[in-house]
């Protein structure tokens, strides 16, 4: 989960999020290189006294500074496309979880197991400081780690967004639509998320919590 004054991405807890962090870092490196180059060039332009009175055109330099950015963009576009299609790929999900956005809470359905369903409300924990303030819910999602999991997202009233940063998931929940995404949690733990469509007065108070546990414990939970 995010902690105080963390300006970076949260640690990736799924292979896709790791890939997205790599892509982010890659793009940021290119951005920094361009920024430094442009800053250097501007400094040079500002602090010299050279004037070329006969300058009318410079075909060669214009050719270079048109083609160079185009090539740079390719180095961003190709990994971006790779990631885009990788995110969309669904390979034999073992479990499907349906999450439904309401004003202002989430409800979940495990359609694979005799249709287990429950609501997930934020806990009002002003009194207990050991809980996660504004992030914890009364009924957490339980999912097994090291498994391909499919998420179906929809809503009943307005647009919400089912978002978990550490798993690299962000899917809008639209009334009358069923959106699909998937992830693979590669470690046990608790993963927090929040709604990220401005959905109304209590938009900030419909968090999402996933408890990632072993398959054995998950089956135990399902039995109960
Ligand atoms: Cu639901 Cu914002």
Index terms:
Cupredoxin; Copper_CuA; Cyt_c_oxidase_su2_TM_sf; 2 domains; Cytochrome c oxidase subunit 2; 224 residues; Helix Hairpins; binds dinuclear copper ion; alpha+beta; transmembrane; Immunoglobulin-like
Quick summary:
This protein is an alpha+beta fold. The chain has helices at 15-46, 59-88, 215-223, and strands at 95-102, 105-110, 116-120, 141-144, 148-155, 160-164, 169-173, 179-184, 189-195, 208-213. The protein folds into 2 domains: 15-88, Helix Hairpins; 95-223, Cupredoxins -  blue copper proteins (Immunoglobulin-like, Sandwich).
How far apart the termini lie comes to: 28 Å
Strand portion, in percent?
A: 25-35%
Radius of gyration: 24 Å
Strand order of the largest sheet: 3-2-1-5-8
Q: Figure out the total of helices.
A: 3
Structural class: alpha+beta
CATH superfamily of the largest domain: Cupredoxins -  blue copper proteins
Number of domains: 2
User: Considering DSSP H and I runs of 4 or more, what fraction of the residues is helical?
Assistant: 25-40%
Largest sheet: 5 strands, mixed
User: Can you give the mean pLDDT?
Assistant: 93
Second CATH tier, the architecture of the largest domain = Sandwich
Question: What name does CATH use for the topology of the largest domain?
Answer: Immunoglobulin-like
| Ligands bound, unique | dinuclear copper ion
Residue ranges: pLDDT <50 for 5 or more in a row?
A: none
CATH first level of the largest domain: Mainly Beta
Shape: elongated
Strand and helix order = HHEEEEEEEEEEH
Membrane topology: Multi-pass membrane protein
Catalytic activity: 4 Fe(II)-[cytochrome c] + O2 + 8 H(+)(in) = 4 Fe(III)-[cytochrome c] + 2 H2O + 4 H(+)(out)
GO cellular component, one term: mitochondrial inner membrane
Keywords: Copper, Electron transport, Magnesium, Membrane, Metal-binding, Mitochondrion, Mitochondrion inner membrane, Respiratory chain, Translocase, Transmembrane, Transmembrane helix, Transport
């Amino acid at each position: 989960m995010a902690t105080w004054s963390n300006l970076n991405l949260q640690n990736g807890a799924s292979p896709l999020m790791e890939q997205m962090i790599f892509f982010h870092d890659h793009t940021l490196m290119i951005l920094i290189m361009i920024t430094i180059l442009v800053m250097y060039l501007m400094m040079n332009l500002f602090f010299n006294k050279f004037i070329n009175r006969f300058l009318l055109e410079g075909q060669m330099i214009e050719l270079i500074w048109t083609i160079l950015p185009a090539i740079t963009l390719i180095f961003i576009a190709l990994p971006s496309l790779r990631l885009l299609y990788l995110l969309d790929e669904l390979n034999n999900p073992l479990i499907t979880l349906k999450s439904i956005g309401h004003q202002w809470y989430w409800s979940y359905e495990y359609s694979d197991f005799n249709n287990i369903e429950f609501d997930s409300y934020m806990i009002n924990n002003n009194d207990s400081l050991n809980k996660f303030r504004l992030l914890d819910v009364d009924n957490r999602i339980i999912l097994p780690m090291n498994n391909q999991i499919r998420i179906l997202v929809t809503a009943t009233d307005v647009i919400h967004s089912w978002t978990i940063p550490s798993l690299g998931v962000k899917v809008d929940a639209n009334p009358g639509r069923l959106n699909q995404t998937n992830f693979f949690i590669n470690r046990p733990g608790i993963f927090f998320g929040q709604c990220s469509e401005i959905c109304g007065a209590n938009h900030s108070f419909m968090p999402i919590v996933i408890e990632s546990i072993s398959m054995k414990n998950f089956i135990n939970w399902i039995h109960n």
